Hints:
Structural class: alpha+beta
Strand order of the largest sheet: 1-2-3-6-4-5
Largest sheet: 6 strands, mixed
Strand content: 25-35%
Radius of gyration: 14 Å
Number of strands: 6
Distance between the termini: 15 Å
Helix content: 25-40%
Amino acid sequence: MNTKLVNPAGLYDGAPVGMSQATVDPGSGFVFVSGQVDWDAESRVRHGTLEGQAEGAIEHLLTVLDAAGASVADILQLRVYVRGELADGMPHIVPVFARHFGATRPALTGVGVASLASRDTLIEIEALARLPRESR
């Protein structure tokens, strides 16, 4: 299989742990986006609130999609992991998600988890998208 690796400059480097920010299957046009978090290039959390981290993770998600040749309109599915009880986080993240994904309305699963990639990371967002037909 001829998989395209997507690793935009400016995002944290996943090479030391053997991951890419996304992989693209050129045959199907599917874009598999790794869980995006609100980290700077040195893997440090940028914002202290759930809302701020949701915005930052979505910003990274959109950067990765753009580098892959896709956009928010091409997202088919989102998987959102929130530290703690998901219901407690919903009032903080729903407005952020509605602002960014409201018109697209991808399939979405939210999961409350005990831990994420760092103690300060509060949210992680992974996505499945499909490149527009003209880009495949």
